[in-house]
Structures are given as C-alpha cells and as structure tokens.
Amino acid sequence: MSQALPILYSFRRCPYAMRARMALAVSGQELEHREVDLKQRPEELIAVSPKATVPVLVLTDGTVLEESIDVMRWALAQHDPEDWLPTTEKERAKTDALLARNDGDFKRHLDRYKYATRYDDVDPMAHRAAACVILSDLDQCLHSGPYLLGDRFTFADAALAPFVRQFAFADKAWFDAQPWPALQQWLESFLSSERFLGIMHKHPVWAADASEA
Ligand SMILES: N[C@@H](CCC(=O)N[C@@H](CS)C(=O)NCC(=O)O)C(=O)O
User: Fold this and answer.
1) d(CA 52, CA 65)
2) CA gap 206, 151 in Å, rounded
3) Are the C-beta atoms of 67 and 84 separated by less than 8 Å?
4) Which of 108, 126, 141, 191 yields a CA-CA distance of 20 to 30 A from 47?
C-alpha cells in the first residue's frame, strides 16, 4: 500500500532513532511520525518489519528501511544541505571505522554497564572501563577539531553522540569528572544544539485508531 509521506516508527529515547531523526530533520524530509511503545509495538510496525526494532522508515513506494544507518543514508541522499555525508575517501573510511566500533564494541559495553542486571554474570565496572578506552580515543580525536571529522558536524557526530549521551547519563557526575575535556565539550554542545533539541520533542504514542478518528 502506498502512502503520501514516508512513515517513521520511532521511540523518543532510543539512540538509534535519535540519529535517524536528526538525519531526516537536517534533510528537511517531511514524514509521518509514529511514536512507538516498545512494550506494545503496533501490528502495523510488525507487519512491515518483523524484527520491529526502531527506527523503521517506510518509503512511499513501500520500501522498508529497518536499520538506523540506512535511514540516515537515505535521508541524506535526498538532501544533504550541511554536508553530513563524507566527501572524501579518508572521511568515508574514518566514518565507517567510528560507526563499526560504536555499534559494535561500544554499544556492547554500554549495555552491560548501564543495564548490567539484564545480563547473567557481568561486571558493569569492567564494561565501563572497556568503554572508557574507546571514549578516551574519541577525546583524542576531538583534540584536532570540534567534531569527529574536524571542522564540520557530520554523519559520524550524529550517529555516535546519542550513544555517548546514554553512556554519560548512566552516571553524569562520574562522566563529567573524567579527563576528557574535548569529548565533554563535544557532548555538551550536541545536547544544547538546535539539531538535537529539535528532534527531542514529545509525541503521543501512535495508534491506528486514533489517527483514523
Ligand atoms: N541495528 C538497529 C538497532 C535498533 C534497536 O535495537 N533499537 C532498539 C531501541 S533503542 C529496539 O528497538 N529495541 C527493541 C528490541 O530489540 O526488541 C538499528 O540501527 O536501527
């Protein structure tokens, strides 16, 4: 079934959904936003994407994008007014490496630090320490410019910052006390940016019945 606008299934506090919403917003893409309750996912989401994670973007031709990175790439391929996409091979390689480490090892350590009780026999402090090695490296990287690739906010910043935010807020006082001035500055400027605040407003949970009423 085709629809007039792409439909985004999203959850406000999900870091994957945040990165997707930011790319969609900067691209100026109009869409229908459907806020999801992750404990009670709508049948319409499960029907288009059986794994039913968020974000999911359903394009007007029925194509379903069910990975946040694919949603970001699609949005920026439509319109990329701030040059978020890498412009050189070197930028592309660095972006890919940052993404792979963030979505792989960093996310694994973050979950086991922040949500240790959800796992059998994990030591949250060991995972925090392992995540710190990655965060120290990000801090180093930010010593050569205000953003991960240097002078401009790009795909890499939008894709990683929601996860660093989640890590920081697990224990903000502790995070703020770490020797990572460049990373702390990068995160604070992200948190207070219009591009981030603009995608954090609240939406009521979507229900098919309510939208048809
Ligand atoms: N690889 C996916 C991961 C998305 C994801 O795991 N989202 C979380 C919310 S932050 C989710 O939907 N979790 C529910 C579940 O895994 O069942 C992406 O990049 O979009």
Assistant:
1) 11
2) 39
3) no
4) 108
The answer, yes or no, to whether any atom of ligand 1 lies below 6 A from the CB of 102, is no
Residue pair 84/161 in contact by the 8 Å Cβ criterion? no
Give the residues across from 7 on adjacent strands.
32, 58
Nearest atom in ligand 1 to 51's CA: 17
pLDDT in tens, 10-42: 999 999 999 999 999 999 999 999 999 999 999
For a ligand 1 pocket test, name from 9, 12, 16 the mutation site with the most ligand atoms within 8 angstroms of its C-beta: 16
State which CATH number among 3.40.30.10, 3.30.70.120, 3.40.190.10, 1.10.340.30 fits the domain covering 7-82+199-212: 3.40.30.10
CA of 144 to the centre of ligand 1 (A): 32
* Residues 89, 95: Cα–Cα separation, whole Å: 10
Ligand 1 atom 5, closest CA: 53
Cβ pair 129, 117 in contact under 8 A: no
Whether the link from the prior residue into 181 is cis, omega within 30° of 0, is no
- 147 beta partners: 150
